[in-house]
Design a protein that fits this description.
Strand order of the largest sheet: 1-2
Helix content: over 70%
Number of helices: 20
Distance between the termini: 53 Å
Length: 442
């Protein structure tokens, strides 16, 4: 098909370059570094904020949990404050480490320089009466993600530039490598301090807002565009178009939109912690739980169709794919069907996930399900993951409904494809039956 040729020969090289571009790759790796911390922080939030109405809960386990959480809320929330609430610091370090590795520089220097630069930009120390010097944590959570990206890239680029020009302090031979490496970062650290600290002070005096807030204001239109029905639909559509020609679409698209989704998650977590309305819908777990049900393309229902198929190929694929699909892994479906370069299955494979995403977006916006404020591993079965991440049993019901919607989209195309395979299998069986039996030599 000409359309597949266009995707493979025109779009595929462009998105392959985007996905492997060194700065994009470093941003993706840096944000991924923060995922374990968001998972831990999310569970801490759930434990410290039980999903029960204190005015209606009178006894039993729910009342005991509420009373325990009320008494020890600060202590129970401590893992959140030490993980998700400072996630941008981890992201800055991850970006610096990844980009330094790409340039074959000392990765530890890249990480610590990025952390220092980020703190200079986002958490300059304050004098508080009766307390002393403190580091404000206002912009260490998701609101500082874009500042962390700037800090991580800037730090390593300065490190690389000075290294290329040999503007470093060289220690004599025989000095232990750890000490030599620490002095290797001295000049870049000095340059970064005199470069970033005065600039952030001047910008704050000119704009009246801290540097991270100024960056967030600049990115606000993009954040709004991503966290919208169009953003949900287009990102999923693009991911599936890439998958249809053999590119791992989820990974490619994630490299671009993951910082936005992580920022949304952090903002929701902070609002939930403060007892305020959560501002965002599109988060990493929204994608995993409501859109990729059973894996990319929302193929869980298709697995159950395959299990009952009259086609030997599809039935075998369904048996192989069932257990992975429960945990949102569907490479057996994608390559066993196959979905790649398959004109018959192209339409449902490309459209089921975006349609599920838009339905889930409006269901959340209308308050039919709670907004997601926690993160769980993407391999968590979708109904359970959605219920935990939103602390709302209705989220699990929505997942099951969306699985049925995806199944309805796939079913007519699946039946057509099944008939095609049955004809092929019948022809292959007839050809095998007509083949003469091999003679046995005396």
């Amino acid at each position: 098909m000409k359309f597949f040729d266009f995707l493979e020969n025109k779009l595929m090289p462009v998105f392959a370059k985007i996905a492997t571009q060194r700065h994009i790759s470093a941003i993706r790796d840096g944000v991924i570094v923060s995922i374990p911390f968001t998972v831990i922080g999310g569970f801490s939030l759930i434990i410290a904020n039980p999903p029960f109405d204190p005015n209606r809960t009178t006894g039993g386990f729910a009342r005991a949990w509420l009373d325990f959480a009320t008494t020890y809320k600060f202590n129970l929330s401590m893992p959140y404050y030490m993980t998700m609430a400072i996630m941008s610091l981890f992201i800055a370090m991850g970006i610096g480490y990844s980009l330094a590795r790409h340039y074959k520089l000392n990765q530890l220097n890249g990480a610590v320089l990025s952390a220092m630069t980020f703190l200079l930009m986002a958490a300059q120390a304050l004098n508080v009466d009766g307390v002393g010097r403190v580091l404000p944590a206002t912009y260490l959570d998701g609101t500082g993600i874009f500042t962390a990206i700037i800090a991580g890239i800037l730090s390593v680029e300065v490190l690389r530039l000075l290294k290329v020009r040999n503007w470093t302090i060289r220690m004599p031979d025989g000095v232990p490598p750890a000490i030599a490496n620490s002095f290797d970062s001295l000049v870049p650290a000095f340059v970064l301090v005199i470069l970033t600290f005065p600039i952030t002070l001047v910008l704050k005096s000119l704009t009246g807002v801290p540097f991270p807030q100024m960056i967030m204001n600049a990115f606000k239109p993009l954040v709004g565009a991503v966290d919208s029905p169009f953003g949900v639909f287009f990102s999923a559509l693009l991911a599936q178009l890439l998958w249809s020609v053999g590119i791992h679409g989820a990974s490619t698209v994630r490299a671009v939109i993951l910082p936005f989704k992580q920022a949304n998650l952090a903002a929701n977590a902070a609002a939930h912690m403060a007892g305020e309305a959560m501002p965002h819908i599109f988060t990493p777990m929204f994608w995993s739980a409501f859109m990729t049900i059973g894996g990319s393309g929302a193929t869980l229902a298709l697995v159950f169709f395959y299990l009952k198929s009259r086609s030997t190929q599809l039935r075998s694929t369904g048996k192989l794919a069932l257990l992975p699909a429960i945990f949102n892994i569907n490479e057996p479906i994608i390559f066993g069907t196959p979905m790649v370069f398959n004109p018959t299955m192209f339409i449902p494979f490309v459209l089921a996930q975006p349609i599920c995403g838009v339905i889930a977006y409006y269901a959340t916006k209308l308050g039919l399900v709670g907004r997601i404020f926690a993160d769980v591993p993407w391999t968590t079965p979708a109904p359970l993951g959605a219920m935990i991440a939103a602390a709302d049993w209705r989220a699990a019901v929505l997942v099951l409904f969306l699985a049925c919607v995806a199944g309805a989209i796939y079913y007519p195309f699946y039946k057509v494809y099944e008939r095609q395979l049955l004809r092929q299998e019948a022809q292959a069986g007839a050809a095998e039956a007509e083949r003469p039996a091999p003679s046995v030599a005396d």
